[in-house]
Amino acid sequence: MTLLELEHVDVFYRDLQATFDVSLTVDEGETVAIIGANGAGKSTLLRAMIGLTQCRNGRIRLAGEDVTRLRCDLLARRGVALVPEGRRLFSSLTVEENLLLAMARARKGPWTLQRVYDLFPAMKEFRSHRASDLSGGQQQMVAISRALLTNPRVLLCDELSLGLAPKVISEIYACFDGIRKEGVSIVLVEQDTVRARSASDRLYCLLKGKVRLAAKSSTVTPEAIREAYFGETRT
Ligand SMILES: Nc1ncnc2c1ncn2[C@@H]1O[C@H](COP(=O)(O)OP(=O)(O)OP(=O)(O)O)[C@@H](O)[C@H]1O
Ligand SMILES: [Mg+2]
Predict the structure, then answer these.
(1) Is the distance from the beta carbon of residue 114 to the nearest atom of ligand 1 less than 6 Å?
(2) Tell me: the pLDDT tens digits for 29-70?
(3) For the chain, which terminus, N or C, has the lower number of CB atoms within 10 Å?
């Protein structure tokens, strides 16, 4: 069943149009990657999905309900959670304080402190550290856990791998199997097309705010991705 649906979405920043006629779907339990170069409109789409940016045209539906004009906090209550670019933790609070804050407004569901410590066993070791003292990878674990603790139906992740070492990125991505087991849908925004492809069921490639390619991740060719990513055939 379709959980999240964007239909002909145009987003503007004042006069600048950032997305053009974008339509995409995310099924229940599905992982969908959105890839594209800098400025392609990936973060803009995620922000539209969680109500941080309004669409000028088009519709957004969540489980069949029209949520196009819904505020961010109301979308969160309905099960949309964002892991933002740059993590955005409360830096002066400890890891566990950051997590407890997220739980204060959580929906009912399977995710508890114990469950996120099971997902990231290392996090339990540094749970009393201040967020400002963590490495980038550790912060990312906390940011993902904080989003999960709201018990989302769909988890939106913006460039999880930014600034992290390959080994750390692999550790972070390993958590997705455990998240999918709970039936959570995942939208992954990534510039790393190889990782995006291997971590997703389907992918959309944006070029200058438009969907240039929509494909099944297991069968799409690197050539098709390259063509859509750069907008031209390269040899
Ligand atoms: N707050 C804003 N005000 C004005 N223009 C913006 C704003 N945020 C993004 N834009 C513009 O909208 C377009 C899409 O930006 P967006 O951040 O969605 O791209 P992106 O694909 O996430 O890029 P990146 O890979 O660099 O994160 C770009 O042209 C960008 O300059
Ligand atoms: Mg971005």
Answers:
(1) no
(2) 999 999 999 999 999 999 999 999 999 999 999 999 999 999
(3) C
* Residue 58: inside a domain: yes
pLDDT in tens, 163-190: 888 888 988 898 999 899 999 999 999 9
CA atoms 27, 31, 37, 42: torsion sign: positive
Is the residue at 154 inside a domain? yes
Structurally, how many domains does the chain consist of?
A: 1
Is the CB of 24 inside a 6 Å radius of any atom of ligand 1? no
Strand intervals (E) in 28-170: 31-35, 57-62, 65-66, 80-83, 154-158
* pTM, 2 dp: 0.94
Distance 28 CA to ligand 1 centre (A): 28
Q: Which ligand 1 atom is the nearest neighbour of the CA of 36?
A: 21
Question: Would you say residue 143 lies in a domain?
Answer: yes
